[in-house]
């Protein structure tokens, strides 16, 4: 019998972990896993951006640090131990001004940037990973899924797992539109996200940014919510590599300027940054990222971890919208997806 083929759509935390957990759960050779993402690299909303002037100078534009909450301390401990053992995570020791610490919570940072978590799981998964593959349509053809991408090509799979934000699931065309039943559509349509912008500022080697914190939450500015001196957050002293700064806007600002021209939004954020940090030196490069789907504000009702849209062949969706918006939520969803696949096999 030909080897079954599974496609995971999305190389963020949920998709990459799902691919790694499939490998751990199934007998060797039982399933060939492919992973497609429309972006040019791994990470999704846990993305790490590189300075065009020096790829060693990086900034986390999405997720900033990872928190193991007490409610998951037992259930998820092994994931954290594995990432700590591989040096992907380290305890967060740098001072974060204004951070609200939950009792018993443990915070971690990623010395190589948050996208290194997804990259770690992609390596472990042994999956064939393809970037710049934007899935647009899914059809049911003779007991398999035909998955079409924007560039025009399509391939057949026995299992398809969608870990993309829910509004992007609802944008997919083809048979999937009628396969999602009325109650599922209602649940998916109830999901909502916050929106915000992020700026990554990259500096020349030798630039000094003298502040007594590594990151800080801002509460008295209409535009800026969070600033991180990203190398400092990761305990990296700038040497021959320049420092980098990340600025996150507030959600009200993100919503107000969501459809504006990115250049203009960047200018507005820089003007506010000048007010908050008047002594900040001029960067050599700036990246402006719009997070239309930033953090989940209303998850799928009852947080089921995954939603099975079709049993045989399997079509399953998951991701942080099916739990909650952080790494623990992605672990939980990936575990639920893999359990559902095992039941359907
Ligand atoms: C600004 C910001 C700050 C955050 N801070 C933290 C934090 O400090 N700590 C924390 O734990 N979490 C944080 N989060 C939340 C965390 O980043 C998310 O919960 C997590 O990254 C979601 O992962 P995911 O894999 O479920 O989805 P995503 O990361 O969104 O991954 C989905 C992937 O699917 C791809 N995709 C979408 N549509 C298609 C398509 N049609 N075809 C192919 N590919 C497609 C996308 O390119 C993306 O790579 C933050 C998020 C943001 C935006």
UniProtKB/TrEMBL annotation:
GO MF term (any one): epinephrine binding
Signal peptide: 1-19
GO BP: any one term: negative regulation of heart rate
InterPro entries assigned: Amino_oxidase, FAD/NAD-bd_sf, RNLS
Stretches assigned to the Amine oxidase domain: 99-334
Domain of life: Eukaryota
GO CC annotations, alphabetized: extracellular region
Key words, A-Z: FAD, Flavoprotein, Signal
SUPFAM superfamilies, A to Z: FAD/NAD(P)-binding domain
Tagged with keyword Signal: yes
Keyword Phosphoprotein in record: no
Name of protein: Renalase, FAD dependent amine oxidase
Species in which this protein is naturally found: Crocodylus porosus (Saltwater crocodile)
